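Notes from the pairing session

We agreed to fold both candidates in a single pass and log them together. This is the raw record for the first candidate, unedited. Please don't reformat it; downstream parsing expects exactly this layout.

Candidate A
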Amino acid sequence: MEHFTRLPATVAWLLAFLLLLCPAVTYSEDPRPLTNSLGMRFAKISAGSFRMGATDGGDFDEQPAHTARISRDFFLGVYEITQADWQTVMGENPSWFSPTGPARADVGKRDTRCHPVDHVTWHEAVGFCRRLSDLPAEKQAGRTYRLPTEAEWEFACRAGTTTTFSTGHELSPRHACFATTEPKPVGSFPPNAWGLFDMHGNVWEWCADWYDPGYFVRSPAADPTGPPEGTGKVIRGGAWNSTATYCRSSNRDFTRATRRDIGNGLRVVCVPIGAL
């Protein structure tokens, strides 16, 4: 909370008020979390190796399963970026599922500020990271933000597991928001073993990488960042309207960087000072 003292009193009051409006959110029990000036929480993901890709069949673009190594620790958002986060940083809320969005007739008067932001393009997601990095309190703290690589995302999603989902070989409505009619507030379901919520379902999450269906055949073993170009940008995790198949830890999909889809949101990496 010490960072709030560096913000204008009206902003600090608003952030405190928004936290009270999100009773579904319970923060990670990881003893090493990082909290930024907006109250966003990040879990430390320690460097390590894992089996990337489908180990139980999957689609052709998930083959071959291979060992990938993340050589440096990184901090990944405990939650997907919420509508409140986006509004605070960007000054607007583009979400389909919001009181002012295209689905406002279905949303009605419900408070969706703790829902994940959706309906954002890849370029807008990168712009969010840039603006968050440019906040005075974040500059003073030496923190910058970016989208995760596809390898970082799958490493964090699996959280040490080798099964189809981080929950095992099956995903049920007790585990995630999928095969339903709309997203849920972030943190509505149990986190994975590394304290990350909603890695399966709720909204697709943009990654930094270009998509190439054959990339796994030639990807480097250490810190792969994707091909130099591609047909679109990688999205991972599935969404509220996806079947469980699309929510698998290894499932890969893509969207054009300029396309605005109702199921696309984001989760960001925080890069503290000295980690560059």
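Candidate B (folded immediately after A)
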Amino acid sequence: MHKKNNINKLAVGSTVTVCREAARPKQLVRAASVKQEFLIISTKWVRMSKKKGTGLCSMAEEAIKLGENKSKFIDKVKEHLPDGGNLNLCLTCGACSSGCPATGLADMDPRKFLRMAALGMDEEIKKSPWPWLCTMCQRCIYVCPMKINIPQLVYYARQLTPREDRPKGILGSCDVALRSDTCSAMGATEEDFQFVVEDVLEEVQAEQPGWEDLQAPINKKGSYFYLNQNSREPVTEADEMIPLWKILHKVDADWTYGTKGWAAENYCMFLADDEAWEHITRVKAKAVEDLGCKVWLNTE
């Protein structure tokens, strides 16, 4: 680039063609007249033109065109950024990526994801598997100096994929949980759960000295705590429930399970199915209220 003024005069809808042979750092260029950001990779030779599609460079590649298509996803992005959706508040500091367990997976990280969202790259985001690799643990929010809610953006990114095309494991678990009021993604019934809890409790009381008085109440009305349990445990790893029972026993906690809404997980939330995850949550909340419990302990 010979003249800096060409950058300053860049208008909305201009086309920039970039050669990738030069190893120079990325530059964030602002069009002064309209205050809109364009991401331009600095290279050896770049010629710009205000006429659409006439940008050229020494090794021709497809132009990067920004600001032309209306993005549905960007509207969701702006709702969750501070100061009315001002994308300029992202400092691109990388703090979000530094602590993210999903950084580097599928050639993506939270900072790159946010910038793609800000640039309206809906199709690229939709094609990436990364939103399904993110655990939405919210670590990025805590370290972000601007408190940008990236997990919420990931949630909306998942909704870009039609429900039937979303990951089969999560989809199947959600659908199974919707079949009964246990909300179990393993399909365990109320009777199954009660039988396993009572059977394991009886075994502990009989075989473990000092735990003869251990309790694992079910449907005990008026208890202070209502306890949820991951539904995999009573189905495949029943002994994993015992340590928590012992802790609650040692502190003399007033608690109970319920036969309805006892499954702690909510795969419908991870599926980004608003209606389904709300249904699951309401079933569990009703189970807590029906037993008159004060606090809902969800182990997930």
